[in-house]
Amino acid sequence: MPISSDLSRPVGIAAGVLLDAALADPRRGHPVALFGTAAHALEKRSYGDARARGAAHVALCVGAATGLGVVASRVRSPLLRTGLTAVATWAVLGGTTLAREGAYMAGALERGDLRAARRRLPHLCGRDPGGLEAPELARATVESIAENTSDAVVAPLLWGAVAGVPGLLAYRAVNTLDAMIGHRSPRYERFGWAAARLDDVANYVPARVTGLLTVVAAPVVGGAPGRALAVLGRDGHRHPSPNAGRCEAAFAGALDLTLGGVNVYGSRVEHRPEMGDGPGPGVRDIRRSVRLARVVSLAAAGVSVLAAWGLAAARRGRG
Fold this sequence. Notes:
Elements: H1 8-23, H2 31-46, H3 51-73, H4 78-92, H5 95-110, H6 114-120, H7 134-181, H8 188-191, H9 193-217, H10 225-235, H11 244-255, E1 258-265, E2 268-276, H12 284-318
Antiparallel strand pairs: 1-2
Helix pairs in contact: 1-4, 1-12, 2-3, 2-7, 3-7, 4-7, 5-6, 5-7, 5-12, 7-9, 7-11, 7-12, 9-10, 9-11, 9-12, 10-11
């Protein structure tokens, strides 16, 4: 049965979710990695120790990604537009790879292989793994899974539902630039300011949706929605990030753990406020967090497909 123009976005998003589940991220030639390579090459020409230079760099990179999405969204054939939406959704999602990284960390720590776990941790976050023992490696993994469930799954899906392929590509460009230049360092303190602030804006709603979906999904890991909601409301704002704290607090409440503490990023040490009421994460909690992330991701996919369908129906009604 041919796909109508109204259904190209929801069907394409659903197909992209299935592609991510089946294929995950390729080791070479990933579209996001290619974007990062191009952004890095541009940075060599655009860099300057000033916010204005950083803002111009972000505008060029995000503008190019958005423009590519606009071109794809104007394809006349509904079938082709659906296919392009599916490919774009697959390209920007990272949920399957995130779950696999979490499972790898769990397996390494369950075997007592600290060397393998320390070597793998940079795939999840930017903390210095050199001196971390099993409990801190477990905490870093659980916190990274919580935050990245929003960044790698919920946020791109919601942006895709609202804005189609342009939204998908623009969001991933913003989030990638934040990872590349948005962190605080002497080089990027000013140049990366615009990337970090734009990422905060792009993730504001998705992070809170992630928190609420985590509350609803708490029973799949033996948690209580009421407790998860209480921790989210009490501790979600305590994190230095306006968004990551919502995800981590909800996971802490759902898993009945306490997250937060001292994090080391190279020469920089950050003291994060604690969130939650339970014990610190143990190795066994990594697989629980992966299970929770998978359920939240599945719920986000359902919400996004329904939202895209509803928006299409609303546009059809106005027409």
